[in-house]
Amino acid sequence: MAKDMTLLWGSGSPPCWRVMIALEEKNLQGYNQKLLSFEKGEHKSQEVMAMNPRGQLPAFKHGDKVLNESYAACMYLECQFKSQGNKLIPDCPEGQALMYQRMFEAFTLTEKMANVIYYNWKVPEGERHDSAVKRNREALKTEAQLWEGYLQKIYASSKEQCCFLAGKCFTMADVAVFPSIAYLFRFGLSEERYPKLAAYYNCLKDRPSIKSSWPPTWLETPGQDLLKDL
Question: What is the DSSP string of 50-68?
Fold first, then answer.
């Protein structure tokens, strides 16, 4: 089945990483894949545009079915291969509700993170303002504190060293959120200021599906300290 799948991806991209984690969790190794360079503009290549006219990664295809939104691809994989690999959607209504809530909250986390990390890339030099930088950093700080609070409650009510976002098991919420949390620490988020986020990150980073799909550029280059004072 995996041989009918093709993934075009970029290293370090949380959306790409989500899909790769989902594929690993569902035991769908052996799919066709191609690593492309954002720096070289390969995400705007004809090969990508043929699958994703937005010129964005990931670009994912299963047979003749194309899913270029990472959440859509992840949900599709879980729905199509329910009995294979690890179950990523809880059966109970309470677990499902929490999973979906945290999963879709990740959109806000990712947006606020990008507003800080990619500010100079997204905003032309003549339109940049120190007030906007400060406002974006404060918004990201508030968001990070919110997730720290979520995890504080989870760890306070659990005796387990490794906790998950939506219950006792690894779910689609973790597939969606972990890459963004990892991105924060890649850019220097303080483990001392955010100890529960750090505990979550350090526990899950060695999970087989995450470790095997770890961004290769992160293994080759050091992280940055942009968020060290957040």
Answer: HH-TT--S-EEEETTEEE-
